[in-house]
């Protein structure tokens, strides 16, 4: 891992309240392990969104901030993202590369004999 590559913490769920301190410790360790001040939390396997997931992510963000870092989410369920926004927790989200649509009026394939536009 280089200075620009953030560490990744994979969250597989559902997460119980007893697991939260262990996950906070794991996040703290990743922040200490390298110069990157961001830890990416892969939440794709977290399970159905709910208040337990919101609580976990809020605690992880608080832990990261106390250690001088931040949390960035990878692959959040849209419902989880909406719940976090509703709770007032504005997380940075990793974006997938954007799929570009062809410009309007441009054909992707041309058949022989088709008139030019």
What does this structure look like?
Strands 1-2-3-4 form a 4-stranded parallel beta sheet, with helices on one face. β3, α3 and β4 (about 90-95) form a beta-alpha-beta unit. The longest helix is centred in the middle third of the chain and has 16 residues, at about 50-65. The chain is of the alpha/beta class and about 120 residues long. α1 packs parallel to α2 (about 50-65). It is about 35% helix and about 15% strand. It is built from 3 helices and 4 strands. It has one domain: Transcription Regulator spoIIAA, CATH 3.30.750.24. InterPro entries: MlaB-like_STAS (IPR058548), STAS_dom (IPR002645), STAS_dom_sf (IPR036513).
Percent of residues in helical segments? Answer: 25-40%
Strand percent estimate: 5-15%
CATH architecture designation:
2-Layer Sandwich
Structural class: alpha/beta
Say which CATH homologous superfamily is assigned: STAS domain
Count of helical segments?
Answer: 3
Strand order within the widest beta sheet: 1-2-3-4
Outline the biggest β-sheet. 4 strands, parallel
Rg (CA only): 20 Å
Mean pLDDT, all residues: 85
State the domain count: 1
- CATH level-3 fold name: Transcription Regulator spoIIAA
Instruction: Please write the CATH class name.
Output: Alpha Beta
**Low-confidence segments:** none
């Amino acid at each position: 891992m280089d200075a620009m590559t953030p560490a990744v913490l994979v969250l597989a769920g559902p997460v119980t309240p007893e697991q939260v301190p262990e996950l906070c410790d794991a996040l703290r360790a990743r922040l200490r392990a390298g110069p990157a001040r961001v830890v990416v939390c892969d939440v794709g396997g977290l399970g159905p969104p709910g208040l337990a997931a919101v609580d976990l992510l809020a605690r992880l963000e608080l832990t990261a901030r106390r250690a001088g870092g931040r949390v960035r989410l990878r692959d959040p369920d849209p419902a989880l993202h909406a719940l976090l926004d509703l709770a007032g927790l504005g997380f940075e989200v990793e974006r997938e590369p954007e799929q570009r649509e062809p410009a309007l009026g441009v054909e992707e394939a041309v058949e022989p004999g088709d008139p030019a536009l």
